[in-house]
Amino acid sequence: MSTTRQSNPSPAASRGGAASSASSDDLPYIPARMLNEYVYCPRLFALEWMNGEWADSADTVKGRTVHRRVDKPGRASLPDPQQGDPEPVVARSVNLGSPELGIVARIDLVEAEGDEAIPVDYKRGKAPDLPQGAWEPERVQVCAQGLLLRAHGYRSDHGVLYFAASRKRVEIPFSEELVRATLCYRDQALELARGEKLPPPLVDSRKCPRCSLVGICLPDEHNHLTGKQEQVRPLVPARDDGVPLYVRYFGGSIGKDHMEIVVRDRGREAGRARIDETSRLVVLGNPTVTTPLLRELARRDIPVSFHSYGGWFYGQFSSSSGRNVLGRIAQHRKAADSGASLRLARSFIRSKVRNSRVMLRRNGKGVPSTTLFRMKELADQTKKSQDLQGLLGVEGGAARLYFQSFPLMIKTSFQDDFAFTERNRRPPRDPVNSLLSFAYACLAREITAIIAGTGLDPYVGFLHQPRPGRPALALDLMEEFRPVIADSVVISAINNGVLGPADFIVHTTGCTMTDSGRKRFIQVFERRMDELATHPTFGTRLSYRRILDLQVRLLGKVLLDELKEYPEYSIR
Fold first, then answer.
1. How far apart are CA 215 and CA 345, in angstroms?
2. Range 34-63 burial, b when 16+ CB lie within 10 A, else e
3. Is residue 161 within 8 Å of residue 123, measured between CB atoms?
4. C-beta neighbour count of 268 within 10 angstroms
5. What is the model's pLDDT at position 324?
6. Neighbours of 113 (CB within 10 A)
7. End-to-end CA separation in angstroms for the chain
8. pLDDT over 80 (residue 492)
9. What is the pTM of this model?
10. DSSP conformational letter for 76
11. 437-451 pLDDT, tens digit each
């Protein structure tokens, strides 16, 4: 917990007693733990309780370890406070709720004797050296537990915080001041939840680096874009801890053995991977994925994407988290607003044209200056497009110029084997188009999984119109990353000699990659996704996979009207 203190709210702001209207609407009761989060940071409370967001950190994992023993329900139950049973009782994992208070709690431990009950709340860290014995969020949480015990007829004039790291019990008196503050925070939290609007992030706060939701909240990025903070701290890890697992078989099975993913082909074990080191499972072909594995991956929020053997994206399986309902509602409203859709579509296309121009300028040899100048004009012209059709016309013109000069980015020694005259697809008719189509499919899969993971709807977009089975929002967001990621991977695979003519099968109906060629190309693609790049807006170093996640979450802020404009990802 942070060392930053917060002052008590004004007692006048509290109802000062039972929450007579706390349960008069459709809001569920507030967990005592959520009151802790509200006092610590109102936005953290809103993200977790209103939006259903959650992410693990080292602190949350250690916290679960501390609670593992105490969370097991014990045999003892609390005595009837009216009976006056003098025998002391210790009850674990006690669930209490009160419609009058509008609060619920699962109390780690209750020490009861007769009509007196003392809530004991376990904490992972060390006891702070403070006159009050603990920081305010912890004191409010245990006080809420004490108020619940009072509501059930017990005397409860103090609680206990047990700090596991220092093995110390700290007694927290339930003073009138603490009770008023607890009820006031409850009222404020309920008022915030009724408003269905997220509060702004904290500004340059010492609390943010230890927060498990910092990668979801993005406080420094938000405050930088709104002019409240100049410096963006590197609060988010540059790379994911896990790596994708690709499985490509016509048959076979993918199952679970303890905490490992086991791949079998024709009954023989073909490979293993630890689940906690896997960020997503990519299934190409038709191997069977077992229910125990799917359930474990859903529990860990690890998505599974399904593709044809050749890489065509069918769809994905992910956990039913129900997160970010407010964001999805806002997304559908914006999609129904032609003006809002056009503004976002302009950003996507403008960034795509700019990034395509930079790709030609950096990697092309002999690119006509007229092409670069015209592409700059087209990027500026996107601002004047009055409708989506006009915008698509601008995009089409820029794409023709870009692909006309695309061969100039291929080394001269490889241009005969990888001849390219135009962009074609469905099916691609030459090796370069085959690589481009597969790279775009891989990129679409990545962004679809990220969008679904943030709780937005991948199938409702702003530039690409909804069609059955088409992830329109993923296609929108991948526009600015087509040249930066997909095209770059194709150029790299060709110019570095990773693939050659023998890795393609060209026939009258199209061109496909061989199994070995596709495997090597996937490796190049994954290296690019894991490569660190400097974000042009914030100056932080992140992997491209992290950057994709960042851009999706920034779009979510635009949809919720937290940001006025979508911050385009335009390389220089």
1. 25
2. bbbbbbbbbbbbbbbbbbebeeeeeeeeeb
3. yes
4. 8
5. 84
6. 15
7. 40
8. yes
9. 0.85
10. -
11. 999 999 998 999 899
84 dihedral zone (left: phi>0; alpha: psi -120 to 50; beta): left
Give the closest residue to 566 by CA, choosing from 386, 347, 345: 347
Rounded to whole angstroms, how far apart are CA atoms 393 and 84? 82
Rounded to 5 degrees, φ, ψ at 151 are -60, -25
Domains of the chain, with CATH numbers?
11-197 (3.90.320), 200-229 (no CATH), 243-317 (3.100.10.20), 325-559 (1.20.120.920)
d(CA 236, CA 207): 14
Residue located via tokens 């049973």 = 85
Across-strand partners of 10? none
Give the distance, in angstroms, between the CA of residue 162 and the centroid of all CA atoms in the same chain: 32
Task: Note every long-range contact of 517-524, with CB atoms under 8 Å and residues 24 or more positions apart, other chains counting.
Answer: 518/248, 518/311, 518/438, 519/248, 520/493, 521/435, 521/438, 521/439, 521/489, 521/493, 522/246, 522/442, 524/489, 524/492, 524/493, 524/498
Cβ atoms of 462 and 335 within 8 Å: the answer is yes
Paired sense of beta strands 103-113 and 30-31, if any:
parallel
Q: Tokens 């870009």 belong to which residue? A: 402
Model pLDDT for residues 267-299, shown as the tens digit of each residue: 898 889 999 889 889 998 889 999 999 999 988
